[in-house]
Amino acid sequence: MADQYAQTLDGEQPSATGPLRWEEPPEGPVVVLLDQRRLPAEEVELVCTDVPALVDAIRTLAVRGAPLLGIAGAYGVALAAARGYDVAEAASLLEGARPTAVNLGHGVRRAAEAYGTAVGRGADVRQAAAAVLAEARRLHREDAEASERMARHGLALLDELLPGGSHRILTHCNTGRLVSGGEGTAFAVALAAHRVGRLRHLWVDETRPLLQGARLTAYEAARNGMAHTLLTDSAAGSLFASGEVDAVLIGADRIAADGSVANKVGSYPLAVLARYHHVPFIVVAPSTTVDLETRDGASIEVEQRSGREVTELPGPLAPATAAGAAAGPVPRVFEAASGVSGALVAPVGTRAHNPAFDVTPPELVTAVVTEEGVVSPVTGAGIAELCARSRQVTIS
Ligand SMILES: CSC[C@H]1O[C@H](OP(=O)(O)O)[C@H](O)[C@@H]1O
Q: Active site at which residues (predicted)?
């Protein structure tokens, strides 16, 4: 069953067999996830039959990435409605699973509103559940559509900023198909450049502590045949200094009304390096990641995660070499946040500081790319105008 993920991750058209899908087996509807904690060593499915299971999957990053969290949240409300759970309680549990990515709350509230509207119009339980599922599927489709449009806008921006037609891109964390209903956000731009022969190289930050870059972006880049090199987060500075980076492409988990950008921890230092070395720092995110209700960067809640994610290595890890695969099963080093103890990288009892995100001020962001177009320079007025445009567009 998991093989189908291998096909979709090979760059085929987005389909229902991406990192998340809805299924209706005889025993009742389920949300099926590709368990991202097990990648790249294993493509394992996680079948969520109830909302607590989906909340746990969100909290432990079995499913992750801002746009996909919104989609997962919407399907979670659909699961509650279809299985006769209290929809309001389910929505509250789902929305509270992780605080920083605004998409999660957006997806949950949109699905819950669809339920309320249906009930208000006299729908019975089955009809209301169907209305929620239809809204979740609409959100899923809209995100896939947004991904394609962001890739086009982002590639055009790269070509405008970097004449010469062959780009060396640095990415941080993971922003491909594994965070999206389509081909992702920032990674989708790099993939679009690759497909037209204008990606000279992809530099992949490993992205400590959970190694989304090493485990997931390298996995997706390899499956798409993209020339890429993994680096430790701390090696990025010398790469800029050696003139090896033409642009930085990152995603976002929340963009505040003033254009401040919350993204995976380590993004802000990259923005400072990019500014010092006169390299474009480009944020790629759907308009569902913009939160006009959050005034500025200081108002964004940054998720603080367990110090164990810093003091222990995540896993399971892929075989060390191709031969490693022949050497038998991959050692399960540590299943992040699952509590299964793994390889310690610090003395027992060491306290660790583990913010999952940081915030980059708008003045360090060259451009924000959404499905509606590009904002540059990044100002509150520009962000608001972009959101106004997205409200006028609906995907049927
Ligand atoms: C474009 S959403 C991807 C975004 O989400 C990641 O966070 P996490 O892996 O903790 O869900 C990271 O911030 C990426 O930039």
A: 253
